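Re-run with default settings, no changes from the original entry. Doing this only to confirm the output is reproducible before filing.
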Amino acid sequence: MSVRSTSNRDPQQYNIRRRDTLGKIAQRLGVPQAELARLNNIRDVNKIRAGDVLRVPGRRDGFDANAQTTQRTDGARRRANTNDGFDANVTSPANVTAGTASGTQNGYRNIQDLGAFTRGGSNSEAAIIVGTSEGNRTPSGGFTASYGGHTDPGNAAHNRGSFSYQGPGASTPQRADEIWNRELTNATPAYERAARAAGLDPNNALLASTFMDLHTQSPRAARNFINREMPRLAQDPRGVTRESLVDARVNAYRNDRGELRAAGFNHSETRLRADQTRREGALVRALNARGYNEGGAQRPAGTVDREVPIPTPRPRREADAARTAKTSEERPAAERASGRRQQTTSGRTTEGATPTDLNDTARVAASGDRAATQTRTPWISQYDANRVVDAGDKACFRAATAMARAAGARVTGPGERIQLATAEGPNGITVNRQQAERGRNYIDQQLAAGRPVVVGVNHREGRNVGNADRITDHFVVVTGKGVDAQGRTFYTFNDPATRNQSRGADTNPNNRFYVDERTGGLMRPGPRTGNVVQRQFEVTMVRPNA
């Protein structure tokens, strides 16, 4: 904790008094408790001392400078930009008369208990509904691939959980959801008071969800929303509707002179409005799906479709509704075209994307020289229906991520990939040497930390199976690094394209990449025909871990 002797008249500092708690101070100052704790290096929020001085998050800043995408937040999740020129006193209530409405009639039911709305961890209604807006959840309670962890495109920070939490103390997405549920619980009383003062019903599902979603995106915009925009909403002839709420959300990013202060959106109202419209639309879809609209059957709080598990730490299997959002690598091309789930094959496979002899039982002798750097990564076959979702010819990526996950690594989406290959031809791929060096350096760093790395490989021209780069044919897992008797650096890998563990595991002396001196890339020498496990492999992309 930073301690300095001063009085409470400095708006950037607060002198702790007797009987103060951090929660009460945060509520009094209108700032998130988690942000206050982070700014003052407070590890235990229950241990503060009277007489110490807290640094208070800047009152003169506007909104997070990185508020560009759906993963934007500030508060506990990001330090605010204190130099973006946002006016002081932006959270002062608008100079309008409070509305006289006795409720908020907009076709949405009331949430009977706002406290219960934020209870239940990843199964809380807030986590599911706001998580749908963030893109990490589905309205049914399912999980998208980004729930387990993803990189914020605005500030490159690591997000996890339903709310895209970036702050400290969240080792798992479930823990992240617990932290932000608590943050929303602490912020709710101020919202309730402001809503009642404006003549609005704070329990209205659409209004409450909008506040919680905006607080998740930007606590400062949320304070403007409740103090300045809700009184205006009460006077809006449209009522509290989706359209009027979008306007209120956009205006919450303005200072008291009416200037838009949203640096992450380049202060563009067009960009900001598009984002706020999308988020409000996502809330409406989630609320409708969960029965909060009048006439719908309301689901009990925390209801999640029974077939949807809570992933730990990343979803192992998503609900059917979430599966439609899988990347092309996770969802086979034939399945996308037909809309049908693929079945696991038996016997010998067809000449598909991964030609494999499923009857191969030949024992492959383990290599005599083991890698000096070796991760503990189990081998998993892509044909093992007990361990791989939709096991079969086109399940290599799912099997590879399952292996990585078992070793403690969480693979990011295709948008985060390090792309080595730029083109392919009948004899192989063209490699960007600079990207190849970057990919090798990343693999080295991860192996040194004990984490395997999933990589894409090319083994035949034209067999791309709809992968993101249209070059990758297959995925394997790099598990170790060593030097052979000839002094050549090699990288071991697990190949899922077989049922024969001795052939697919990294103990097989043929499962090694070497540095191609011509391109700087990684390759495994071999033919361009035959079973995949014996072919020439050239690394096309590196998939970073979260």
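The longest helix spans residues 173-198. The first strand starts at residue 13 and ends at 15.
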